[in-house]
Amino acid sequence: PAAQAAPAAPAAGAGADAALRQLEELKLRGDVAFRAADYAQAERSYSSALARASELEPPPAGALLASLHSNRSACRAHLRRHAEALHDGREALRHRPGWARAHSRIGFALYSLGELTEARAQYELGLRENTGSAELQEGLAAVLRSEGGGTSGAHAAAAKEAGNAHFKAGEWSLALRKYDEALSHAPCMFCTHPQQGLMPGP
Q1: Handedness of CA 183, 189, 190, 195 (dihedral sign)
Q2: What are phi and psi of 84, to 5 degrees?
Q3: How many Cα atoms occupy the beta-carbon half-sphere of 25 within 13 Å?
Q4: What is 86-148 written as a DSSP string?
Q5: Quick one: how far is CA 46 from the chain centroid?
Q6: How far is the C-alpha of 132 from the C-alpha of 81, rounded, in Å?
Q7: What tens-digit pLDDT sequence spans the chain (202 residues)?
């Protein structure tokens, strides 16, 4: 009988394309979990995507890696893992130099770690490279309020404690009033536009 032809070898880029699709699917899962406020699950999905990316040859585009690190930084910020969030922010900036979102991630992590001078410098650097960025302007304003607004910070803490006392006493309306007062005096960096602050980026 005639010899059968050997099956055709898969296209050279088929495996890489499949791996990239898997990576993008993991990123999408992370985005969905983040928007559902499941930050732990989102962080795991972004971590899995980054682990998958490290196995690809050639590596994915820098913009995709920057986005994954930036999004994981946001998750870790919500989880109060600010040192890790800082590392991811710096990785995002390394993969996408000059990106406003990466500067914002670094600035917020430094702010949260109490490194106000470094946070201010980061936001100012970001604004020199991204003039007019509302995200960076809001971050810098929060840092400046904290640097020069110790009284506001103390007022916010006192109002919060008063609110807690009213809450424990079952005085709900008084508690809400005090919580509103605390929020009005505290720097708010989570309350930005949904496409800014700590939402996932592109």
Answers
A1: positive
A2: -70, -35
A3: 7
A4: HHHHHHHHHHSTT-HHHHHHHHHHHHHTT-HHHHHHHHHHHHHHSTT-HHHHHHHHHHHHHHH
A5: 11
A6: 29
A7: 555 555 554 444 566 778 888 999 999 999 999 999 999 999 999 999 999 998 888 888 899 999 999 999 999 999 999 999 999 999 999 999 999 999 999 999 999 999 999 999 999 999 999 998 999 999 999 999 988 755 555 556 666 777 777 787 788 888 788 777 777 765 444 433 323 456 666 5
Q: Find out whether the peptide bond into 58 is cis, omega within 30 degrees of 0.
A: yes
Question: Distance between CA 117 and CA 144 in Å, rounded?
Answer: 9
Tokens of 122: 């980061």
Measured distance CA(135)–CA(133) in Å, rounded: 5
Q: What is the pTM of this model?
A: 0.70
Can you state the angle between helices 134-148 and 100-112, rounded to 10 degrees? 20
Tokens of 77: 């910020």
**What phi and psi, each to the nearest 5 degrees, are found at residue 197?**
50, -120
What is the token pair recorded at 13? 């880029």
Separation between Cα atoms, residue 80 and residue 41, nearest integer Å:
15
